[in-house]
Amino acid sequence: MSQQHFWNEKFSREGYLYGKRPNAFIESCSNYFDRKKSFLCLGEGEGRNAIYFAKKGFDITALDASDIGLKKLEEFAKYESVHVKTKCIDLNKWNPSKKYGSIVASYLHMHKDDRKPLFEKIENSLERDGVFIGEFFSTKQLNYSSGGPKDIDLLYTVDDFLDNFSMCKKIKVEEILTNLDEGKGHQGKASVIQVVIKKL
Ligand SMILES: C[S@@+](CC[C@H](N)C(=O)[O-])C[C@H]1O[C@@H](n2cnc3c(N)ncnc32)[C@H](O)[C@@H]1O
After folding, report:
1. Under the phi-then-psi rule, with left for phi > 0, alpha for psi from -120 to 50, and beta for the rest, what region is 73?
2. CA pair distance 34, 118, nearest whole angstrom
3. Best mutation site among 7, 61, 63, 194 for ligand 1, i.e. most ligand atoms within 8 A of its Cβ?
4. H helices, E strands: number in the chain
5. Residues 6+ positions from 31 with CB-CB distance below 8 Å
6. Which residue in 20, 45, 99, 181 has its CB near the most CB atoms, within 10 A?
7. Which residues contact 128 (CB under 8 A, 6 or more apart)?
8. pTM (2 decimals)?
9. Into how many domains does the chain fold?
10. How far is it, in rounded angstroms, from Cα 196 to Cα 163?
């Protein structure tokens, strides 16, 4: 099943699967983001991060494989009277043509074989001093039922980040236990990896 098919089915249900508030870790990193620079949300789904930062005055582009997720993002943006540029695309086929000051991703479950090429594209798309900030389920999340895939190849290790991004400073790459409260989709104790990576 393609990512688009899988996520379209999930996002076809009523409501916002991960709620309408931004990911708490990404929100807590707001000081890293520069309003004068373009801001990209990867695997943004129904748009909770994109809308939050658009409301704060950022110039936001959101990419996702799910056209249904992005349609809900656009309805949410309209309701909040903000504009977010959207593009429905499989990130494995993404051919970035622009540079960004900020790139974020929350719970983008890329297959382990697809991470290196995606991370290279992210790194090359960051402006100097630009940041990549995200939160991802770790392989230890298999022990918890708070959300996320039950396939180890879709879960991350700190080495996934440490072994990539050679042109960047890894300000934070940390595996922690946290308590998620993100809609119906993410509830309870969870093992996550939080990253703050800055292009040199
Ligand atoms: C767990 S959801 C998280 C959505 C959103 N980031 C959030 O936290 O609310 C994973 C998202 O990643 C997107 N996704 C997964 N694999 C993708 C790929 N290869 N290309 C583009 N989007 C992808 C899905 O469509 C889905 O919207």
Report:
1. alpha
2. 23
3. 7
4. 6, 7
5. none
6. 45
7. 199, 200
8. 0.98
9. 1
10. 14
Which residue has its alpha carbon closest to ligand 1 atom 13? Answer: 43
First-to-final CA distance of the chain: 38
pLDDT digits (tens, 9 = 90+) for 157-169: 999 999 999 999 9
Residue 185 CA to ligand 1 center (angstroms) comes to 13
CATH number for the domain including 149?
3.40.50.150
CB 74 within 8 A of CB 87: no
Separation of alpha carbons 15 and 56, rounded Å: 23
The alpha carbon of 110 and the centre of ligand 1 are apart by a number of angstroms equal to 8
pLDDT digits (tens, 9 = 90+) for 79-98: 999 999 999 999 999 999 99
Alpha-carbon distance of 33 to 54, in angstroms, equals 12
Integer Cα distance of 174 and 197 in angstroms: 11
